[in-house]
Amino acid sequence: MKLSQFGPGALVAAAFIGPGTVVTASLAGAEFGYALLWALMLSTVICAVLQEMASRIGVITGKGLGENIRSQMTSPWLRILFFTLIIAAIVVGNSVYQGGNLSGATLGAKEVLGQVPLLSDWFAQGWPLVFGVLAAAILWQGKAKFIEYALITLVLLMSLAFIGTFLLTDPNWLGVADSLLRWRWPSDSIITVIALVGTTVVPYNLFLHSASVANKWSGDEGVKNARTDTFISIPLGGLISMAILATAASAFFAQGIVIESAGDLAVALAPLFGDSAKYLMALGLCAAGISSATTAPLASAYALCGIMGWKQSLTGFAFRAIWATILVLGVVISSLGLSPIKVIWFAQVANGILLPVIVGFIWWLCNQSTMGRMKNSVVGNAFAAIIMLTSIVLSWKSLHHVWLSITS
Predict the structure, then answer these.
(1) How far apart are CA 50 and CA 117, in angstroms?
(2) Total structural domains within the chain
(3) In a 3-state reduction of DSSP, which class is residue 380?
(4) Burial call 52-72: b when 16+ CB within 10 Å, e when fewer
(5) Other beta carbons within 10 Å of 406
(6) Is it the case that residue 93 has pLDDT exceeding 80?
(7) Staple 294 to which of 135, 325, 393, 401, CB 3.0 to 4.6 Å?
(8) Is the pLDDT at 326 greater than 90, yes or no?
(9) CA nearest to 346, candidates 128, 102, 19, 95
(10) How far is CA 231 from CA 5, 37, 85, 166, in A?
(11) Which residue pairs from 124-131 have beta carbons closer than 8 angstroms and sit at least 24 positions apart in sequence?
């Protein structure tokens, strides 16, 4: 498989390694050391299997997940259910999360460029606009290959930054291996484990992936290419996430250092491992913010256009209007330092409901006659059953956590 044939899988990797993943993995490493590396490894396996099924649907049917929902769900009530969940979880959710993506990119850039006199005063409000315009420029090109190359570049940049930072922290390799081979649940770690799975297995990536491969490949050979792309890109993304967690474990857990936000990460590394570690971490955070700020609006446009029956063209008016709206909202939220807690809670509830519903739909569709010889195997269905159970548990725990947050 040539390098030019990669792409959709890299979009997914670029999407789930955002500032939220950086913070979640770092907090997990700082609080529990290497102990939860297994959770990220398991999350990566679940993500790869689920994304492979979604991509297979896209290749065989020639349609994205949103289009398949629209064509398969003949009941008006089911269509309304999916439409409501997609609007709430993906469109509204990505709008508020977009502010965090741009803020993360700004925090990373601040550590690298914040000492430049003419730039330092601009970071509070100006840089979210700069990164928003950059994401818009990537998407406005309207060429799938250009978008794929841009995001592949960002994934490679994150690999260099986060894995490089990990190596600079002089990790305990025996501790890393022990965590991957012996799965343990430290006390009070259940919410962190759920967060690690939740930040890797993301509903909107299923829409992004299936629509992207539907426009790129077809037939049995297309399924083969999509699988290769998925099973290289997703594990690379998982490796980056594990490197972030292990970096925090090496740097902060052993030293008893407490971190509370993304802004603490790079700053706290400098006294321990020098400016090289600080700048690499900051560069990775900036790249993570830009990659997620680009893929979140793109996924929202694919999902909404698909479910509404609108043309899923990168240059279409409706498609561009959707991603542009989400980008603008993200810039406003980030620039003004807003924290729309109630809207975020609403989006989390919708995501908690959407995940098992979407997993169930993908599992069902992968066993239909429309998939031909590419239907799920017995082994594939066994994996799907485990993932379905995991998504239900994850959904229940997520909803319970949101409920406790609201009522406390």
Answers:
(1) 47
(2) 1
(3) helix
(4) bbbbbbbbbbbbbbbbbbbeb
(5) 11
(6) yes
(7) 135
(8) yes
(9) 95
(10) 14, 19, 29, 23
(11) 125/335, 125/336, 126/335, 128/99, 128/102, 128/103, 128/330, 128/331, 128/334, 128/335, 129/331, 129/335, 131/102, 131/105, 131/106, 131/289, 131/290, 131/293
Predicted pLDDT at 191: 84
Q: Examine the pLDDT at 194 and tell me if it is beyond 90.
A: no
Residue ranges making up the domain that contains 324? 3-407
pTM for the whole thing?
A: 0.92
Amino acid 130 reads V
Q: Given this model, what pLDDT does residue 50 score?
A: 96
> What is the DSSP-derived secondary structure letter of residue 188?
T
Q: What is the pLDDT of residues 134-144, one digit of tens each?
A: 999 999 999 99
Residue at token pair 């548990």: 393
Domain CATH for 325: 1.20.1740.10
CB 114 within 8 A of CB 376: no
Q: What's the helix, strand, coil split of the chain in %, to 5? A: 80, 0, 20
